[in-house]
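Lab notebook, bench 4. The sequencing result for the construct came back, and we need a structural model before the next group meeting so we can plan mutations. Quick request posted to the team channel:

Model the 3D structure of this chain.
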Amino acid sequence: MSTVTEKVTALVQPILQAHGFYLVDLNYVKEGTNWYLRVFIDKPGGIDIEECALVNQELSDQLDVADPDPIPNAYFLEVSSPGAERPIKTETDLKLAVDQYIHVSLYQKINGQKVYEGYLDRFDSHDIYLTYRAKTQTKQVVLPRNKIAAMRLAIEF
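Done. Here's the predicted structure in token form:
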């Protein structure tokens, strides 16, 4: 049996493709007594509020007529941008993050650090290659992907 997120993903993908957008993340969560269906979308150059509202309306229409209903509970639908510090979860996210400033959290220390911030130079199926600043020096590090707990875009200060 498909999960709610799988069913909604199947409904939202054609909508996004028709407008040149892509799905960043989708989650269905209970917070307190309420359920939330959150859809995070983007496009090259960024997504704006009108585009989020357009997808919200089109997806809402699709969910209203879907048979069987993919969502068993009453819920709030939220469609939004992933934000400036969006998570990097997929291969597509990684491709878009090359040459961008990112934050990487590790499960265990590498070279004495569990957190790195720097520019993603490149990646392959096993590692990511990062250029970062350590005080006044520019350094490079290779981080095994299986040691990475989370990655996101970051704002450089």
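The mean pLDDT is 93.
Will bring this to the meeting.
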